[in-house]
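Structure tokens please, single chain.
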Amino acid sequence: MRRRPSKSDPRCSFCGRSHSQVEKIITGPQVHICNECVKLCNEVLAEEKQQTLPWEAGEMPKPTEIKAFLDEYVIAQERAKKILSVAVYNHYKRIRTTVDLDGVELEKSNVMLIGPTGTGKTELAKTLAKSLQVPFSIADATILTEAGYVGEDVENILVGLLQAADYDVARAEKGILYLDEVDKVARKSATPTVSRDVSGEGVQQALLKIIEGTTANLPPKGGRKHPEQPMIQMNTRNILFICGGAFEGLDKIISQRVGKRTLGFGAEGSGEVDPDTSEVLPLVQPEDLLAHGMIPEFVGRVPVITTMDYLSEDDLLQILTEPRDAIIKQSVRLFAMDGVEAEFTEEALRKVVTLTVEKGTGARGLRSVLEQAMMDIMYEIPSQEDTTRLQITAEMIEAGIDQYDRDDGGMRRKSA
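Here you go.
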């Protein structure tokens, strides 16, 4: 005979079912919960985690609004910001559209950013993802090799994006992936060769399907692939790829092409010109990337090409002080945490810029120069409890840097 449940038997505090009606009841001091309610709670939490992105539920930000957001974090690069704003707007508009397109399929507008180091390529891509609140990841193309060779498989560039989405595949499939140093996977020769090029043309070939759109198999929780373990399937059709690279020597290729056309009219000479690189680079065409060693199929899958402007000293000064997360603003906040009101003179800021220009590393070098110049000050100030105000002058910056030797464009500590 089945025992009738007594009043002392624990019941689920949420659904009221008794122990005999469910598989398990977890008891607490005053509250109990059954396995069915635990399962329901997990489903609710999963739904909360996979909530729609802001631009999916609300109004899609216009290109002008996207650029205005970029202006708060990235100085100069007006042309690149406009092109990226339009490309990103069209990309996410394509994802969320419910309009019948009469069989017309909208293709992805992947972007190629070309420019020297330190001009803001990575910062632009990162800020774009921040403006749309989508997962963002940076992958380094230089570590990739063809499948079967020592190095990273191309599918592994997606693992970082999946981690940025907290392993929510649906969110990761709408993220932005910045592929850095993509110029380093160019062919070693502009013409195809019989020999194997496992880190050049082979990598480009392997990237084609992922950039265009395919279902990639990723190892769970970022582990290595194993034949017996279940894989996470991730569709790359709606992932926006932004490829960045310095493409050294590209300006000479463009000069040769432009020069042969512009001399004309019986002009003498080889047709080559040597204009300023900053004037030549914006004239880049897909054919120039082919001559640099990129394969036609890869260039065809990255239709939007834009170049980064060289940064002047005034641009670097603005980068140092004006963006929301400017380096000087960060330094002032750090001193404020120790109860010190810090102020940089105009001459001190220009000294930091001048030293950065000497290093030739673009905006990326600003933090390095400032950290080196301020090292002794940041070491002493926390111990000086009576100091409440600090003015940093050009002489103090110079004195801090004088402790380092300039060597090959970099800085190293002087030997004692």
